[in-house]
Structures are given as C-alpha cells and as structure tokens.
Amino acid sequence: MVRRSARQAKNPRINLNEETYTNAIWENKEVPLWSTALEDADTRVARISGAKTTRKATVALPALSKEHKHILFMNPGTQCIHDAMVAITNGAERPAWCKYFKSLSVQNGKLMYGTKAFATSEEKRRLVKSKYFTPDEPSTIQPITDALRGKYCNISRSNVRNILRSLETYQLNFARRRPQKVNNTTIFKNPGVLACDVFMPSAKLGFFGKRICLTVMDVWSRFSRCYVIENKKAILVKQGIERFVKEFTSLGHLPRRMLCDKGTDLGGWKNVDAIMERYRLPRDKDQPMVLRSVTGMPVGIVEAMNSQYQRRMQVFRTSNLTDDPADVLWDISDQLNDQRRPVRGNLTPLQLLALPQMQRNAINAKYKRNFITNVGGLKPLVVGNTVRILQMTRKEQEKFHKQFAPKWSKKKFTVLRRTGLRRNPGVFKYSVGLPNTYYRHELLHIPKKTDTNVPNINVRNFKLIAESPLD
Predict the structure, then answer these.
(1) 141-197, pLDDT tens digit by residue?
(2) Are the beta carbons of 465 and 405 closer than 8 angstroms?
(3) Which domain holds residue 27?
(4) Residue 118 resides in a domain
(5) What Cα–Cα distance (Å) separates residue 14 from each residue in 6, 26, 350?
(6) If you count Cβ atoms within 10 Å of the first and of the last residue's Cβ in the chain, which end, N or C, has fewer?
(7) How many CA atoms does the CB half-sphere of 288 hold within 13 Å?
(8) Which pTM value belongs to this model?
(9) Which of 326, 110, 388, 23 shows the shortest CA–CA distance to 201?
(10) CA nearest 17: which of 33, 7, 34, 8?
(11) Are 233 and 338 part of one and the same domain?
(12) Is the Cβ–Cβ distance between 180 and 442 less than 8 Å?
C-alpha cells in the first residue's frame, strides 16, 4: 500500500496508483506539465511578444548645442555678464566673449540665452549650496548639475564640483582612499643570496607517504631545486642543501647568505650554519652567514616558490598519473630553470646566472620595481597647497570604516616640504609642520578659502544658522 503525503493529498491531478508513484512526474503522461497545461507554444509566443512593458522609460537630458557648449567653456563671471547686459540694453557693441552668440536678451534684469538665464558667480554658489543643504534635493556633483542646467545655461559640472569642494561640510565628509598594501620586499642585485624551506605534500590530496620536499633557490635569478627526502633527519636535509650549493657554485657563483625561517624543519640550525661557514670571506668578519626571520614570519620568496612547485605537482596527482612527488619534482625544477622571466629581461634563471657583472647591472637598472605607487586618481601635491589630514591610524585605514563619517581634520594645513621615496619615482611623503609626515592618500587637497557659511534651511522645524564668512 502506497502512503499518501500531505502534498499529494492536496494535488487532485496526480493519480496515486502504484505505477504513477514509482515514476517521475514528468514521465506521467496523464499529468500535464505546468509549462504546457495552460497554452501551446504559439499562444505563449504571441502573449509574450504582445505584452506591454512595465519598465519605466528613462528620460534623457536634451543634447547641448554647439553654441551652448561654447558658453559653458567660456564660463563668464559676474562682471562679464553685467557688461553684456549693459551693451544689449543700450544697443552698444557687445563684449568680445558674447559677440557671436545668438539668442541673447535681457529680461527682468537678467541676461538670457533663449529661455535659460545666466547665473552670476554669487548666484551659482547660492544655488549649489541650497541644493546640497536641502534634504529633498540632490547632494552630489552630477545630479546637482542636471537639476540646475534646466534653468541656467552657464552652470557646468566643474562649477558645481569646485563649489562643493570649497564647503567645509563637504570637505570633512569627503571619502578617503584605502592605502596600498605594502609587502615585505628586499632588493637583490646579484646572485648568491640563497633561501631554503621545506613543505609536506598533503596526504588528504592523495600523495603517497609522509614525504618531505626541500626547496633551495637563488633569490635574484630564481634558480631552484626541490629535493624529496624521506624524513626531517638532519643528515638528509644536509645532503640536499650541500648538493644545491655544489651545483650553484659550479655555475660560477659563491653562496653569500642563506635566508630561512625560525622553524625546526631543516633538521637543526647547525647544519645550515656549518655549510654556509665554508663560504665566509674576510670581508664578512663576524657577520652571520644565515639570516633567520626576526619576527618569526616565513620567508615570502621561498614560500612563493613552494607554492609554484605544489601547483605544478598537483596537476599529475589530479590526473592520477602519480602519487609520489619524487617522480615529477626534479623534472619540474628543470623546466622552471629553463622558463623565461619577463621581469628579468625575458631570460631564464640559467641564462641570468651566466651573465657578467656589466649585463647584470643593465638588467637591474632597466627592470626596477616600485614597491609603493600613488593611489589612483590622486595627483601629487606641491609646496603651498592647503590640505586637511586624515584622522585615522594605519590600522583604522586597513579596517572597514564608514565612508560617510567625518574623518578629516577640522584644522587646515599648508604643505611645507615633500620628500621623494627611494626607488619609488613619483611617490612622496609630505611635511605640514607636524612631527609626522604623510602619504598622499592621507591628505585632502582643498581650496585656500573654505566656505563655512551654512544657509538657513528648515529641517523639521530645526533651523541651521551660521554667519561665519569665508576664512
């Protein structure tokens, strides 16, 4: 006996005999599908094509004529508009800026271009501020421009932008730029600085046994080898490092330093120290030959090489070609040592190690790397610019922060000096007379004169009044 479910009991179209219950609904020919139960294909096509759209049509702004664009380009000020009004009223010769404009007239004491009036500099500021400080009016650049352009012919987008940026309220709430992430990077110009680390292929990914993979590389050329050893015993790790050092020396370069982390994966630090002590020169004096991470963080460059080996190795594990890293890692290292590097003159690691000192210097000079770059859209400041300072610490800049909240200093500062960063052309730190110096994204460039006057606007019976003039 087939037990009826609550859903089937409510559906009278489904036959609940045993044959129908064992088949899927779409296989039951007696039960019509929802897509064909109402109408056939031709009826559906006719209904969909003839349906009325409910989407509201966007109203496009009327295109500006060439003459109107010329008026916006000329951007006449208060005095120019007054001179044109006097000339047109008295029938005298027009000023040079409007001599060839048609449809100019004077109505009710205003200069008109067709049906649109000219706004003086003072009127522009008053109109933009009334829009910005009114709740039911737009408060950003382009919407304010679109709202005013219907009545006035000489208010451009740049006019609205400059007026808004001169308002103190607009400045304090201006959005900040998120700083660029600065990674720990060291500059290397010659081969000889080595880096080593180990990684264990995950058994969860299907690799056989608990293999240990020892990666040793030259930092400048990226010449590397990856050795598969059975365990972390010091004697096995030592054999791998010695083998790489001998091969690297045979290519014409001496090991000068070794970079590694503070872990115990290398079979004890004495092994690495003993190997590098063989290559100590008189100029090294008592300086350490093995440089360990001071903060305990991993060495980024050799970790990136480990990732590259594991990505290549995973291809053969995913395709079930092998589950032993020893079958493929040596061949992968051979291929990587013959792979061209675009950031080093499109030369392979083996070719880079074969270069003389003069050609290495040319490669280093041509392919420089900028560690810090300017945030996009922010032009460098010059001495004398007026700025506000970002009131946020470095940690607060990295974390999520409300963009609309006031975040800039109430006090204004002047750029007194700018200092270029080494190996970062076009990037500066600025001094404004405080003990600290600031990056470009931590300073807001503002006009020298700030409008602190707030118009009288009633917001739910609350009157905002301020009479302070431009400071």
Answers:
(1) 999 999 998 899 999 999 999 999 999 999 998 988 877 666 656 778 899 999 999
(2) no
(3) 6-49
(4) yes
(5) 13, 11, 74
(6) N
(7) 11
(8) 0.56
(9) 326
(10) 8
(11) yes
(12) no
